[in-house]
Write a structure and sequence with these properties.
Helix content is about 35%, strand content about 20%. With about 425 residues, it is an alpha+beta fold. α1 packs across α12, α5 crosses α12 and α7 crosses α8. The longest helix has 20 residues. It starts with a helix and ends with a strand.
């Protein structure tokens, strides 16, 4: 029996066990600030597997020293990071980080779910629940890969670092804290929901809030005022023009050829005024701004600010009443690796070995912790996971179990080739 067959058989032996563990993790509603239950399960599992386990509360005072940190809260009590390390036998071996976030977005209105959002119910080969796709299913796939390597008695030359981190959904504090704690490797694999496509490029994302000023007046004589909402529509239209300008070059990129808007600018909220019979004096436009692979956050912000400054050439109202922007919340830089990176080639090869077809390479249209690993940690990062992209943050979120186990098999093979076998004990 060759190595691939051994890995496949070992994973198949423990399939039910892993499904049960994923159910346990999904039943923990690990929204931001509530990660303790799920992280306790992860830490206990990693300890039982024989890894060196580190559990700690991220230090706010350390995090604020980084330019990549944009806090939403001032302490992380009850939100521990968990890292398990499988030490390699040689200092010469190549190392890999398996990074995944344990936090999930809120479930929303439970009555809209066919299956309870924290049930972990399995129907027709799909395990349902909030976070199954984004990204607890992916986290379990890398856990399976690592435990399978260990179960086969394979001693690697290089280190494998398994990271279960907090707060990716609200800014990346967990991964940044792991970098600051000294966890580094030669490459990182992030099992975000890529539908088993391989993403060597991941965009970043920023949240913004624009304030637009008008002039209040009675609704009966609205011509005496200036509506901030009307001026806000001018801002909105310029944002859409900026989106088109920023996306035009990426449409020639093979990784984004099938994507109509590679780096979207999404307007999530547009609010203004305070009374139906009053002209709106203030308006706020809040949204999410995609940052292109290879672009810095500073460069992306500069384009946005220049767009706002140019408003005065379109409407002279903005000369004395400029629209202003604040950046808050999500603050993820883009990440990735070179297209000739050896781990990318290994993943493509192992994918073909398992799936009997060529891997699909693409670029992500959402931000991940890969940007922090790449830009704050200097670690090339690749996204490859089993989840269904369209189900992330959606009602009736699920992960396809067959894809989860196939992803685990591919990553196990990739870890072995990357880190190299030092010896086999069994």
């Amino acid at each position: 029996m060759d190595l691939q067959q051994k890995i496949h058989s070992k994973i198949a032996e423990r399939r039910d066990e892993y499904i049960d563990f994923l159910k346990q993790i999904v039943k923990e509603p690990s929204t931001t600030g509530n990660e303790l239950g799920a992280q306790t399960l992860m830490a206990d599992r990693l300890k039982q597997s024989g890894l060196d386990v580190d559990v700690w509360i991220p230090d706010y005072d350390e995090l604020v020293k980084s330019k990549f940190f944009n806090p939403l809260r001032d302490n992380y009590e009850g939100s521990p990071n968990v890292v398990g390390v499988l030490k390699g036998a040689s200092n010469e071996g190549r190392s890999v980080i398996l990074n995944g976030h344990i936090d999930v977005v809120p479930s929303g209105e439970e009555s809209k779910w066919t299956h309870h959002p924290y049930s972990g119910e399995v129907v027709d080969g799909k395990l349902y629940g909030r976070g199954t796709t984004d990204m607890k299913g992916g986290n379990i796939s890398t856990l399976i890969a690592l435990e399978t390597v260990m179960a086969l008695g394979i001693e690697l030359k290089g280190d494998v670092i398994y990271e279960s981190v907090i707060e990716e959904e609200t800014g990346g504090a967990g991964t940044l804290a792991a970098i600051q704690r000294g966890y580094k490797a030669d490459v990182a694999i992030i099992p975000e929901p890529s539908e088993m496509r391989i993403f060597p490029k991941q965009q970043g994302s920023l949240w913004f809030e624009i304030e637009v000023t008008g002039l209040s007046a009675h609704g009966g004589t609205r011509y005496e005022g200036v509506s901030a909402l009307e001026k806000g529509w001018i801002v909105f239209n310029e944002i859409m023009k900026l989106e088109e300008k920023r996306n035009a070059p990426l449409r020639n990129d093979p990784l984004y050829k099938d994507n109509p808007i590679p780096i979207p600018i999404n307007i999530g909220q547009f609010n203004g005024g305070y009374f139906p019979s009053s002209v709106a004096e203030k308006a706020k436009i809040q949204g999410r701004y995609g940052v292109a692979p290879g672009e810095t956050i500073e460069e992306a912000k500069e384009q946005f600010v220049n767009m706002l400054e140019n408003l005065k050439t379109i409407d002279d109202w903005f000369e004395k009443h400029p629209a202003t922007v604040k950046w808050g919340g999500i603050h993820l830089p883009p990440g990735g690796c070179e297209l000739d990176h050896p781990m990318l080639e290994i993943l493509k090869e192992k994918y073909a070995d398992v799936e009997k077809k060529e891997a699909v390479l693409a670029g992500s249209t959402w931000g991940t912790d890969g940007g922090l690993l790449t830009q704050a940690g200097g670690i090339p990062s690749i996204v490859f996971g089993p989840g269904t992209t369209s189900m992330a943050h959606f009602t009736d979120e699920y992960v396809e179990l067959d894809k989860l186990f196939k992803t685990a098999e591919i990553i196990a093979l990739a870890i072995i080739e990357w880190c190299e076998i030092n010896s086999i004990k069994k």
